[in-house]
Specification:
Chain B: Keywords: Cell membrane, Membrane, Transmembrane, Transmembrane helix, Transport. The complex is a heterodimer. By secondary structure, chain A is an alpha/beta fold. Chain A folds into two domains: 166 residues, D-Maltodextrin-Binding Protein, domain 2 (3-Layer(aba) Sandwich), CATH 3.40.190.10; 225 residues, Periplasmic binding protein-like II (D-Maltodextrin-Binding Protein, domain 2), CATH 3.40.190. In chain A, 45% of the residues lie in helices and 12% in strands. Chain A is built from 20 helices and twelve strands. In chain A, strands 2-1-3-11-6 form a five-stranded mixed sheet. In chain A, strands 7, 8, 9, 10 and 12 form a five-stranded mixed sheet that branches. In chain A, helix 3 links the parallel strand 1 and strand 2. In chain A, helix 11 runs antiparallel to helix 13, helix 13 crosses helix 20 and helix 19 runs antiparallel to helix 20. The longest helix of chain A has 19 residues. The radius of gyration of chain A is 22 Å and the shape is globular. Chain A starts with 6 loop residues before the first helix and ends in a 5-residue tail after the last helix. Chain B is mainly alpha-helical. Chain B has a single domain, classed as MetI-like (MetI-like fold, Orthogonal Bundle), CATH 1.10.3720.10. Chain B has 14 helices and two strands, in the order H-H-E-E-H-H-H-H-H-H-H-H-H-H-H-H. A two-stranded antiparallel ribbon of chain B has the order 1-2. The longest helix of chain B is centred in the first third of the chain and has 33 residues. Classes of the chains: A alpha/beta, B mainly alpha. At the A-B interface, helix 4, helix 19 and helix 20 of A face helix 13 of B.
């Protein structure tokens, strides 16, 4: 299909798409638009895939559009879907946020595409609605936990903590040595959520059915001690004054730089930040390690995992066949190889046949045991329940700045999720 | 339309003339373009939003839920704080704009060197994009690397976290708003001051008035029209302020500098379209409730003068 079109058509295709809604002409042309979030590694990998794909299919032209992340990005994705102005391929979260963009109405099912055979079921389950699969993985699975600066640990002779108390003892030692124990970056408010979200393995260890009860409005953060612990952990770290001096104004990019260069020792973050470190401070990639957020007992030490974001094709895509072909390319071993080349390996892939290179950064090799035989992991709450309140990040900024107590914050968050549950029309709210 | 005063009343051309004078020379359908634009861009969305504020709306479909959204909006834990913040913000910014604008205008209408240049300098911030100003001041107000705190540090003062201290953030944004908006207030005051007749000042001088008495008993009362314009404009501006707050703090840290407009925007961002539409209806009513009496009071006082 892509071999047949002429160059003249190609040049006209942009104009044609703007002028007419007739899909026939656009389908024939090799013009593809992609909307991707503005994280450094997202842009770098998408450009690498576009280059690799157009190298194989020289008649295809690909335009990459960039959107903000976080709430502003949600807004753009929803508005463009609702107005039928979405790009042919776009990246967006899997799990609860995926459910909120009304997939059955807006997205093209990819269930029967051949590439789905090699995609792991655990991933398919978080991009499915009403029995259809709508997404394709374009990144490795992630862990939520704590990135740490290895040189600081070596210099002070510290051990990777297995319990929360050990973690706090390490923090104290780091503070005594005149260094910053914990990095927080509240200019990008979403980064404030990690202490709570990454604690979910520990919640499930004590309350295995928390997610179902939470969705059914039967369990609450404020009244479930195990769930409240995440809020309390942030509060403890804040009260002990372990944060960097500019934590209120520092950004995610600052945080990534600080943990890489040793300006701070711990940065609670998702492991996708490894890609950002590889992109921005490659010389320090070997200085960053990773461990799961410790619980209260050393026996149950495991990782809270995140499914990667996904690529989707909107129902009214201008060139659906081309879009599907591109998505299949990304979700193939070849696509993984291109990604490895572009930003390095950041975790286990969701596609069978995708290999990690031999020399992975220490943060990745630290994470792999949790996924392998004998390791423990559990998905984050947003993959087990569609209910996620929009104000969690602001509420946690309040806890981090000391203007709200942990109990109060948890209760406020319980109130916040009600709106989301009602908007989704769930039973029992 | 000259009416002939000829002595021949029986002649027919006379009757159309009175009709022509009564009617507008343009046909009524000349209004239709404006009416269509107004209806499509203003009336239709206004009434549609009144309807959607009564629904749970996902952009894709909507479900009628009565006044549930309004109940939810007033249950919103951050709303009360947002309401208080909005009023504080509006009072602080319009108050400071009145005081500073008047002082600057008095200075800039007196005989000082480089008056024209200084007038442009004061007005210049008005011309700059609000978001640009917000981002610039966010950098300047950075707690450790910002130019403001670095300058303070040179004098041995540990500057506060202008935008990161929850108790300070709202006021920091308000100050930037004043910096940006005071030029407009000054221009309005300059216009108000130059029309005050010189005779009053002359009479006051003959009576032996001090410069302070000049200002207090002559300038201030006579520039009341300018004052009420400045108050009304900046108060409404303060009530619905959004761009500067969003560019500088996004309502943070936490909810410390949330105003009604930013609370509404966050609901919209989170996908609660019906709820945020309800919020806009509330904001509309609130502004009307505060501003209509305010304008009436200001205008009545003006009438007494």
């Amino acid at each position: 299909m892509m071999k047949t079109k002429t160059l003249a058509l190609l040049g006209a295709s942009t104009l044609g798409m703007l002028m007419t809604a007739s899909a026939v002409q656009a389908q024939q042309s090799g013009y593809l638009t992609i909307l991707v979030d503005n994280g450094p590694q997202s842009i770098a990998t998408m450009e690498a895939w576009a280059d690799a794909y157009t190298a194989e299919n020289p008649d295809v032209t690909i335009d990459i559009e960039v959107r903000p992340g976080g709430g502003e990005g949600d807004n753009i994705v929803k508005t463009r879907l609702a107005t039928g102005a979405m790009a042919d391929v776009f990246s967006y979260n899997s799990g609860s946020l995926f459910q909120a963009i009304n997939p059955t109405q807006n997205l093209m099912p990819l269930t029967d595409e051949p590439f789905q055979d090699s995609v792991q079921d655990s991933f398919k389950s978080v991009v499915s609605a009403d029995g259809e699969v709508y997404g394709a993985p374009f990144a490795p699975a992630m862990g939520g936990g704590i990135l740490y600066n290895i040189p600081i640990y070596e210099e002070l002779g510290l051990e990777v903590p297995k319990t929360w108390d050990e973690f706090m003892a390490n923090n104290e030692a780091i503070k005594q040595a005149g260094k910053v124990p914990v990095i927080q970056t509240y200019a990008d408010t979403w980064t404030s959520q990690l202490f709570v979200l990454s604690d979910f393995f520990n919640v499930l260890a004590e309350e295995p059915d928390f997610a179902e009860k939470f969705t059914a409005n039967e369990a609450k953060f404020a009244t479930t001690p195990a769930a409240l612990r995440g809020f309390e952990k942030l509060e403890e770290v804040a009260e002990a004054d372990y944060f960097n001096a500019d934590f209120g104004a520092a950004s995610y990019a600052d945080g990534v730089r600080m943990v890489a260069t040793g300006e701070g020792a711990h940065y609670p973050m998702l492991t996708f930040a490894i890609g950002a470190i590889a992109e921005t401070t490659p010389d320090h990639l070997d200085h960053v390690g990773f461990f799961a957020q410790p619980g209260d007992s050393a026996e149950s030490n495991g990782l809270t995992t995140w499914m990667p974001d996904s690529l989707y094709v909107p129902k009214n895509a201008a060139s659906p066949e081309l879009a599907k072909d591109f998505v299949a390319f990304v979700a193939s071993p070849e696509g993984c190889a291109v990604r490895n080349e572009a930003v390095g390996a950041t975790g286990p892939y969701m596609v069978a046949g995708c290999e990690l290179p031999d020399d992975v950064p220490p943060a990745v090799s630290d994470m792999m045991p949790y996924f392998q035989e004998g390791g423990q992991n559990a998905p984050a709450l947003e993959f087990l329940s569609p209910v996620k309140g929009p104000a969690l990040e602001q509420i946690l900024v309040e806890v981090g700045t000391g203007s709200r107590s942990a109990e109060d914050a948890a209760a406020l968050y319980d109130e916040d999720v009600r709106k989301q549950a009602q908007q989704l029309g769930l039973e029992g709210w | 339309m000259s009416v002939s005063v000829s002595a021949a009343p029986a002649v027919s051309p006379a009757p159309p003339a009175p009709r022509l004078t009564r009617r507008s020379p343009y046909p009524g359908w000349f209004f239709t373009p404006a009416a269509i634009v107004y209806s499509v861009l203003f009336l239709a969305p206004t009434f549609a939003s009144l309807y959607f504020s009564l629904t749970r709306w996902t952009l894709f479909d909507s479900e009628f839920i009565g006044f549930e959204n309004f109940a939810q909006f007033f249950r919103e834990p951050f709303l009360i704080k947002g309401l208080i913040n909005t009023v504080i913000y509006a009072v602080v910014t319009s108050g400071l704009k009145v005081v500073l604008g008047l002082l600057l205008a008095v200075m800039l209408t007196s005989q000082i060197v480089a008056r024209g240049y200084l007038r442009s300098v004061v007005f210049f911030p008005v011309l700059v994009s609000t978001v640009g100003v917000g981002i610039t001041f966010t950098v300047l107000m950075h707690p450790t690397q910002g130019m403001i705190n670095e300058t303070l540090a040179m004098f041995g003062i540990a500057g506060p976290g202008w935008l990161t201290d929850p108790n300070l953030a709202l006021y920091s944004v308000a100050l930037v708003d004043v910096w940006k908006g005071v030029g407009l207030a000054t221009v309005i005051y300059i216009a108000g001051l130059v029309v005050i007749p010189r005779d009053y000042y002359e009479a006051a001088r003959i009576d032996g008035a001090t410069p302070w008495q000049n200002f207090w008993y002559v300038t201030l009362p006579l520039c009341r029209p300018a004052t009420s314009t400045v108050i009304t404009l900046s108060f409404i501006g303060g009530l619905r302020t959004f761009d500067l707050i969003w560019a500088m703090t996004k309502g943070g840290p936490g909810f410390a500098s949330d105003t009604i407009a930013s609370v509404i925007y966050k609901q919209y961002q989170a996908g609660f379209y019906g709820l945020s539409t309800a919020g806009n209806v509330v904001l509309f009513i609130l502004i009307a409730l505060l501003v209509v009496p305010l304008t009436m009071i200001l205008n009545r006082k003006q009438g007494h003068e």
